[in-house]
Amino acid sequence: MAMNGTTLGDEIAALIISSDAPAEMRARIKAQWERIGSVIVKHIQDNAKVTVAAGISVSTTGTSQAQTGATTTTGTGTIS
Fold first, then answer.
1. Is the Cβ–Cβ distance between 26 and 15 less than 8 Å?
2. Do the bridges between strand 50-52 and strand 58-61 make them parallel or antiparallel, or are there none, so unpaired?
């Protein structure tokens, strides 16, 4: 699942906005959390390094000079 700042912000806003708050206030808070969520996601995407363990099976096609491929089994990565 791809990271999405707007979705993150919406989920946080839903946790903190009171259902009896005026609609204008709810909209402002939601918009602000959507912006904050986008900043958080951008920071993670710009700075996180994902390391995947060696040994994941792959399938390749093409010549040795122009090979393409994709993993054929699931792997586990570590974010640092």
1. no
2. unpaired
For the residues of 33-75, what is the DSSP string, one character each? HHHHHHHHHHHHHHH--EEE-S---EEEES-SSS-EEEESS--
Contacts with 50 (C-beta within 8 Å, 6 or more apart), sequence order: 77, 78, 79
Asked if 6 contacts 31 with a C-beta cutoff of 8 angstroms, the reply is no
Q: Which two tokens stand for residue 28?
A: 């402002």
Q: Which two tokens stand for residue 21?
A: 């708050």
Each residue of 32-77: pLDDT tens digit?
999 999 999 999 999 998 888 788 888 888 888 888 888 888 878 8
